[in-house]
Amino acid sequence: PTPLLEPLFPPQPGASPGFVERVRQHKVRLEWVRAEPAGLRGAVRVLNLAYEKAVSVRYSLDGWASCAEAPAAYQPPGPPDGITDRFAFLLPLGAAAAAAEHTLEFAVRYRVAGAEYWDNNEGKNYRLRGRQRLPPGPGLPQDPDSSAWIHFI
Hints:
Number of strands: 10
CATH topology: Immunoglobulin-like
Protein name: PPR3E phosphatase
Radius of gyration: 19 Å
CATH class: Mainly Beta
Oligomer: single chain
Helix content: under 10%
GO molecular function: glycogen binding; protein phosphatase 1 binding
CATH architecture: Sandwich
Number of domains: 1
Organism: Grallaria varia
Pfam families: CBM_21
Number of helices: 2
Shape: globular
CATH superfamily: Carbohydrate binding type-21 domain
Largest sheet: 6 strands, antiparallel
Distance between the termini: 31 Å
InterPro entries: CBM21_dom, CBM21_dom_sf, PP1_regulatory_subunit_3
């Protein structure tokens, strides 16, 4: 079975009512995340306070004993609201990150006009738990030949 990362928070915060207002109030908010074979992909929305800005994602797989940071890239065209910008990121985690015993935690950092803003999920960090995909259950149909060996003579 292949491992996957399971978000311990709603993975599409940008789809909830009042999202743009939360971005306006806090300056930076996670929009969505998706676990992929290459790692964790996501998008961040920031309030457009100045032309030059830097967005990154700080993450840890060991309870913050160590951490890494990945930059997020600006995604044109901007959202139609006219006051926010979207940045995309990919955390290149590899297979070890999705192991069942790991928990990935991350927070988003937005630096603009000499200030720094964080989205750390209201102080809880964004957390994803590694877990194994379950094999098909006994009630599900399986290929009868899936466990057969082929012998060549």
